[in-house]
What does this fold into?
Amino acid sequence: MKLIEGTKIFKKSEIEEAAKLLQQGRLVAFPTETVYGLGANALDKAAVKSIFTAKGRPSDNPLIVHIAEQKELKSLVKRKLTEDVRELITNFWPGPLTIVLKKDDKVPAVTTGGLETIAVRMPQHPLALELIKAAQLPIAAPSANLSGKPSPTLFEHVIDDLVGKIDGVLAGGQAGIGVESTVVDLSREKPVLLRPGGVTYEELSEILGEVKIDPTVETKLVNDDQRAISPGMKYKHYSPQAEVILVEGRVEEIPIKIKELISENSDLKVGVMATNEFSDYYKGVTIKEMGSRSNLAEISTNIFKLLREFDAEGVDKIIVEGLPIKGLGLAIMNRLRKSAAYQIIEV
Ligand code: TXA
Ligand code: MG
It folds into this structure.
């Protein structure tokens, strides 16, 4: 085990030690297939509180509780599982799907941000599953970044944001999906998609029939007077230091508009987050390729990492190519729009 500024770095072979820290009410970050999570015992109020402190997270933003076996869901929720829930679990667990249900009384209010519901997911990453199994606890885990920053897809991102603030990190490779899990609310009469992610809206609809899309998925911040159903959606999100501008609309027009913006901003250090198809077209700026337009899975893996890289290189303004809002594109565009704080140019 290595120590960096008081934070213990665990290898795969040291999972038992990392699990012990969790049992002692400590914070341990770990890789999942979506992004790195910052874990604590979900039933331990003090431990959960320290997650909010370490991340600088507002206390009304509820956490997702992670389990290692499907059968653990029953003990965290109030009602018998419906057919819909059972089908979702059979099809998508372990995997990037979080299900919101009425919570059991034993789940403390700090974990759910004061809500009567709980969000639960069973991750697919072998290290995540092993850690949760070894701890024998439900693990509350938000993304392991400072609140407001792009979510961490690499071990190094966790270190950059949280070293010295948390007790341990279980080291792993790059998080494959790169955007956080899909969150679907089944605590109400009709299913509602609260956050798009690795399990697509289309896949959910195939099983659930009609699925509503929460307005926060596609539009701006909710009004302050209207309490967000998914409170996480109302905060500043995924923001690098640099200003982000998203250009979306007709594909052929996007690179032309971006070229215009580049010349209008010649006094600034400009970065372009481009698809492979158009990256050669931009000149005199810092270009980072997010992947091919025909491979949205590749793009979702890269977006948060690239936003952090632009910051590390001192870019002032990041211009991002928009993508079609279909399949994984809904999740990608949701994150990009938030990163851009809804500074969107339609072409
Ligand atoms: O992929 C993921 O879900 C990652 C990894 C670590 O598993 N975790 C993650 O957690 O993204 P976090 O805290 O960054 O995002 C949790 C989201 C927030 O948007 C929050 O508002 C929503 O889930 N959420 C949690 N509990 C909820 C509840 N009871 N009702 C509605 N939304 C809830
Ligand atoms: Mg997060």
Remarks:
- The mean pLDDT is 94.
- The radius of gyration is 20 Å.
